[in-house]
């Protein structure tokens, strides 16, 4: 049955372009419902035993055979004996009290992926980095040391901290908050945590390399309210990632500029908490809270848990009202908190179930890969949390806080940003193909089906753009007047489908929090505070930014290769 294709982003339906209506299909038992992006996985029906995503091996376009990116191939640890490096170990939980100091070191480690050791990076030799647990309103200090072979910093993603500790380098391309920390250097960070929620930390220097090789970790900021979340049987902290390999070898990075600049570096191996296999043991009837962060360079996941889940919280707060959903679409840098109940014994597969695009053929196809598995054992959950799970709570404190500013929602935007791209000095045949390929543009690019062409484009030939609609100024030349602390700014983001190569973008605002109040002019039903929003192709999204934190901050796309290709600007809040 033909119908309008719709994507469900964290439980909120997003209408997609009418030209995609022909993509909808009949949905019988066990088949994908493209209308809601739902895959039925009853216990015992594994869609895939391995978490390997093969890159599309389309024929190279005529005239492009043998072409390579115009950068020097680079991998970490040149001249280093891998056997002399410490073996990476799984992350440790670190509980920090107000006033505590943490020693954090970025270091080279050896890690086995696909049973072969590789030189990679890790914070404190761990993958992911240490899981930091702090109380809301606490302050901690981090003594950071750089022992990798590149300059780096640490950005504390989503934390509303003092501007000078935000971890953005003053490197000539970014107007930063600190100097780069050179190999062998140190830096002292002071972190304050005004908001309960889930946060993470990562470099802000060559994220496409350093983050991809393992430099990332979570921060759980626990609310002072003991009833902040409903009670559950267990909680799982998941960091989703992928890494690009050819067989059992890492694909080198571009030394002078990011490669894979058009679409970002999609990986071929999915990782959960740095491992290629994730399993969780449970009892039949257990309710599990999943706290999820997407740390991939570019991949947007469409997660299905084998059962319906309750959407509880986003980046920086709970939702006004909890919602049930069949799937969660999570873009790079976003975080979601969901709860799932596993009603009977069996194996439940957590999958990434997407509608992907074969650019060469102009065909959409279904792709489902296993992210992990929950193994529910026979018996009964103790205690039984069924009643709490079935209750969709209204979070009165969140609603009351938002009610005070609803009058701001309907006024005209203060600023409008349009996404665009420029490409130059690439093979003519490639540029011609991309211009034709736009006919088939999907709202969200879930996979890389033009990997050879994507690889060839680097940050030297590809420039991703945030353009101020009023002035035409772009990226770091955008010079909005400083917003006053205590005010609210309405920012309209427009992903122009007429761009040369339109693509979805996860847009992140440093140092502030915002509400996603409307998509394509339609009010969002239940709100939560966020710092990163997914902007699909062809869509207009309205943000209401709370200007609470003075300083000069970054606003940028969180696809690492897009950031490395210039897609960033300054956003200033004056005291």
Determine the fraction of residues in helical runs and give it as a percent range: under 10%
C-alpha end-to-end distance? 56 Å
Q: Please count the beta strands (DSSP E, at least 2 residues each).
A: 40
* Secondary structure tally, helices: 6
Average pLDDT across residues?
88
Overall shape? globular
Structural class: mainly beta
Compute the CA-based radius of gyration. 22 Å
Q: Runs with pLDDT <50, length 5+?
A: 1-57
Strand content: 35-45%
Outline the biggest β-sheet: 7 strands, mixed
Explain the overall architecture.
The chain is mainly beta. 6% of the residues lie in helices and 40% in strands. The chain contains six helices and 40 strands. Strands 29, 30, 32, 34, 35, 36 and 38 form a seven-stranded mixed beta sheet that branches. The N and C termini lie far apart (56 Å).
What's the short story on this structure?
The protein is built from 6 helices and 40 strands.
List descriptors.
about 575 residues, mainly beta, seven-stranded mixed sheet, six-stranded mixed sheet, 6 helices, 40 strands, about 5% helix, globular, disordered N terminus
List the helices and strands and how they pair.
Blueprint: E1 6-9, E2 12-15, E3 73-74, E4 89-90, E5 93-95, E6 101-113, E7 116-123, E8 126-127, E9 131-135, E10 139-147, E11 155-157, E12 186-192, E13 197-202, H1 207-210, E14 217-222, E15 234-243, E16 245-246, E17 249-250, E18 253-254, E19 269-272, E20 279-283, E21 287-294, E22 301-304, E23 309-313, E24 318-325, E25 328-330, E26 335-341, E27 346-358, E28 363-377, H2 386-390, H3 396-403, E29 415-423, H4 428-437, H5 451-456, E30 462-468, E31 483-484, E32 488-495, E33 505-509, E34 513-519, E35 522-523, E36 529-530, E37 532-535, E38 540-546, E39 551-557, H6 560-563, E40 568-574
Parallel strand pairs: 4-8, 5-9, 6-10, 9-14, 15-21, 20-28, 29-32, 31-40
Antiparallel strand pairs: 1-2, 3-18, 6-7, 10-12, 11-13, 13-14, 15-19, 16-17, 21-26, 22-25, 22-27, 23-24, 23-26, 27-28, 29-30, 32-38, 33-37, 33-39, 34-35, 34-36, 34-38, 39-40
